[in-house]
Amino acid sequence: MVNLLKSALCVSAILSTSLVAVPVLAEDNKMSEDLMTEKIGRAKSAAPASISDEATIVVDGKVVVEGSNGWTCMPDTFPDDGMPMCNDAVWMEMLTAMINKKDYTATKIGISYMLQGDRGAGVSNSDPYHPDPKNADDYTETGPHLMIIVPKAMLEGMTDDPSSGGPYVMWKDTPYVHIMVPVADK
């Protein structure tokens, strides 16, 4: 839950920041140029270069690279967890709703890449707010994957079993339901 609250602050800062280039100086962020370069590289590693090379890069809630393709990449899903992700606008809407515990209804397809996987952080497959996901009965870890938001009706008949060997539904009984698509072994 603590990570979720930290994430809420980070995502809220991301979404309240206009997507205008913000000059990033090591003194302003108390971050060395080398560390900033590493974080930008980690953010870009979440998606194929064809997406991440033109994406907006957000580090610690601040836009550090203004993109041109509508994608947003971050070096950390939750503050300092090292799980990079790249999201389209639909996915960012859903993530914002989830962080703020607001209702969300998918009306179109949204995509998120996590090509570095969850790096052992794992989650509850049924409860995005589980207070101790590593001890959840349905704890799961996923290696490199992409996530797809679709209108709920399109999920009928799809498994929610992460061990099924293919795509599966995560957070099935929540407004934040989405498809997990493993793209490599853990």
From TrEMBL:
Q: Where is the signal peptide?
A: 1-26
**Does the keyword Signal belong to this entry?**
yes
Q: Where is this region: Disordered?
A: 122-141
**Keyword list, A-Z:** Signal
What is this protein's record name? Uncharacterized protein
- According to its UniProt entry, this protein's organism is Photobacterium rosenbergii
